[in-house]
Amino acid sequence: MEKLKVALLGYGGMGHFHATQYQTQTRCELIAICDSAPEAFANDSSEINLGSSGKADLSALPHYSSYEELVRNEKPDIIDICLPGHLHAEYAIRAMNDCFHVLCEKPMARTVALADEMIATAKHTGRKLMIAQCLRFDPAYRMLREAVLSGKYGKLLSLSLYRNSAAPTGRNGWYRDAKCSGGALLDLHLHDTDTVHYILGVPEAVTTRGITRPSGGIDEMVSFYEYANGALVVGEASWCRPGWSFSSTAVFEKATV
Ligand SMILES: NC(=O)c1ccc[n+]([C@@H]2O[C@H](COP(=O)([O-])OP(=O)(O)OC[C@H]3O[C@@H](n4cnc5c(N)ncnc54)[C@H](O)[C@@H]3O)[C@@H](O)[C@H]2O)c1
Description:
This protein is an alpha/beta fold. The protein contains eight helices and 13 strands. The mean pLDDT is 95.
């Protein structure tokens, strides 16, 4: 089977992580990398919140400094977008209009209107658009979802999700500008909200209380997700804490996972 060809747009921490993961893929291959900062290509590994991105020798791949230069020279099937959050919608829409399928890092977009425009573009161009909500593919979260759906430990009584770190910087400090990142509310807490959605479906109501700190956006928050079955569902996220820690605990009638 012919492999799908992928070009990577954005070669910072997450771009590097994606690049190393393509080395083990059997159905797609990385054919080019693109970043507007020349120094980005000097890193042979990056430290991100998932740990070290690992090593990859990408010296044989063509390097480009702009999307325009990339698509003038290459014919990928997929553009993999690992740009800062505020650029996702713009480049995803451009790429789909240029006939490429798109894998785009989270958060999907800075606003609901832009996210809707991305979906509309995918529909009218017939291109695939996938957002990298990676926890849906994590075996631990899949196991939790299966336990809730099967009822094997009885009814779910509570689910608590914690995700806390110091504020990341990113190239040129874009994470610390809420206009670019959306603050921890959008960039980090969306993992909790997406996980809750993935495991339990759309909640009846959500209440979030938060405070503003490093990014100028909401960077420390607690959310309560209301479900008709009465389970106590809480997510907490912060960019105001030292280090990096996360945990998920589900209390069922017959087990705690
Ligand atoms: N799924 C996850 O758990 C997870 C974890 C970390 C980061 N992310 C997401 O990955 C994305 C990238 O984050 P990061 O930490 O790699 O940021 P980063 O700042 O390390 O990397 C972004 C890169 O994009 C480049 N860039 C900016 N504008 C460009 C343009 N117009 N054309 C080409 N290159 C351009 C920058 O030079 C930089 O190298 C963010 O949306 C972030 O939220 C996801």
